[in-house]
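Study this protein:
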Amino acid sequence: MDMTLKFTDSHEWVKDNGDGTATIGISDHAQKMLGDVVFVDLPEVEAVIEAGEEFSLVESVKAASDIYAPVSGVIIEINEELEDSPELINEEPYEGGWIVKVTLSDPSELDNLKNAEDYLNTIEEDE
């Protein structure tokens, strides 16, 4: 796992791409809890997302889980691979299983998220 990623308490991750954009997905812990992912409801490109608000839905054989925006911004790209291969979320949660890329409205929101080390400590405490 890339230790520069930031995380939410609801198990989304954010990668700061360093150019005013960020990539968002769900953590390895989240995909393990969900089980085999069978469908991802992708938002529209150019949709505006607000930190803390639902922007996607991931369905697995066990459950459907809302995905919440860790940061605010405008969606500039969706991972169309997930339409035909939703299992990428299980296989590569931090690489091929990303969900959206956004232009950040307020890059300082990244400072409100947990760093990778704090996130890993939190999920270890939960287990």
